[in-house]
Each structure stands twice: as structure tokens, then as C-alpha cells.
Amino acid sequence: MDGPLWLLLDADDTLWENNIFFEEAIEDFIAFVDHAELRPDEVRHELDCVETRNIEVNGYGTGNFTNNLVECYELLRGRSADDDERECLHALTLRIRNHPIRLFPAVEETLDDLRARHRLGLVSKGDNAEQRSKLERSGLGGRFEFIVIVREKNADCYRSIISEIGVDAEHAWMIGNSPKSDIVPALEAGLGAVLVPNENTWRLEVRPLPETHDRFRVVREFADLAAVF
Q: Which residues in 104-122 are b (16+ Cβ under 10 Å) and which e?
């Protein structure tokens, strides 16, 4: 990989912890539902179905997640949630909005090492205000030349991004933890892609990875990116 490249990085669950807070809320939601007939995994399946359906219309973010919990609760109960129930469901997601940003090990040092040789961009998806707030609280914003928050990451999104920054696909790489959002569509758009595995990746972001691809890499942890680039 001779010469400077554009390295585009995911944020949630690549640079800092994110999904674990949603998973904690989901565990509490399942306990709150306390369904008489469905097992916990079956309740989770119903929530996954609600989220998958609503993402197409409403997108991501904590606000939409909260609405999904309410909708799923009402679906499982077969009635509207009363005011007390809604208050309890909304309380489950307060920690997600307020949690401190917890960077993964060596993120700052690795970003500094990479930007000494390459150009860095941040490509995140979700609610714009929420994602920018997390980036500001992370203290990492100044390390990126290009920051974009998108509704969804797909091949057309990546083609648009590299067109905007004026780089050919062969000189751009996407780096992240999500096969669905960071790896598969980036490769489809002609970019290189590096998976930074995270055991807490959201289950709806999991997809089969390419068995062979000359522009696909997997690292063990974030710090290993310095050896790839």
C-alpha cells in the first residue's frame, strides 16, 4: 500500500463501546415484559423483527430504539402501553443517552500513527445530533479531515463519499466492526475493507464475510491497523 490512502473509519463499536448499552437495555426490557408464554429469546426475536421493519422507515438512534421498545411491548401485550409503562420503557434507554464514551484500547495512539501517513475520515450512521455529540465527547474529532453521518451505509453511500472527497475507490479503505455496514457494501463499491472484530456487534449487523477478496483484511484489534497501513 504505497502512498497516502483515504482511511474511512466507523465510530460506534469500532472506536468506542456502544452496543453493550443497548444490549443491557434489551435485557431489562425482556425482564420487564416477563411474558407468560414466550421465552426470552422469542421476545428478543419479536423485538428484532420490529427493529428490522422500522429501520427502513425511521433509521437508527436512541429515540427510534425507544419507540421500538414501546411498539414491541404493545405488540406482545396486545394493547396500548399505559403512561406508567411508557415511562418505565423510556427509562430503560436513559443510560444509552448519558453513558460516558469509552474508547477501545490504543484508539488515540493508532489514529495518530495512521494520520501521520494517510488521510482519515469518519463515516458513521444514525441520528446526526446524537452521533456528533458522541464524537465531541470522545475527543477524537480533530483527528479526522472528513466527517459524515449518514442514514444508512450501502454501496451507493460509499460511492458518493469517495466522489465527494475526490478519491478513486482503489485508494480508499473502510474500517469497522460491522459486516453489514462497513465491509460488504464498501467492497461492493470497490473500496478496500478492514474488519475490526467486536464480540458485541449488534446481531442485526452480522452478515457472512467474503471468503477470498484481495481488498479485504481482518485484524485482531484496533492497534493492529498500524501494521496494515
A: beebeebbebbeeebbbbb
User: Within this chain, do residues 79 and 31 fall inside the same structural domain, yes or no?
Assistant: yes
Range of the domain at 114: 6-16+101-228
In this prediction, residues 4-23 reach a mean pLDDT of 97
Given a cut of 80, is residue 2 above it in pLDDT? no
Domain-ending residue, one of 77, 98, 119: 98
Give the per-residue pLDDT at 211. 85
Q: Global pTM?
A: 0.93
Tell me, yes or no, whether 124 and 212 share the same domain: yes
Give the C-alpha separation, 64 to 87, whole Å. Answer: 15
* 81 and 122 both lie in a single domain: no
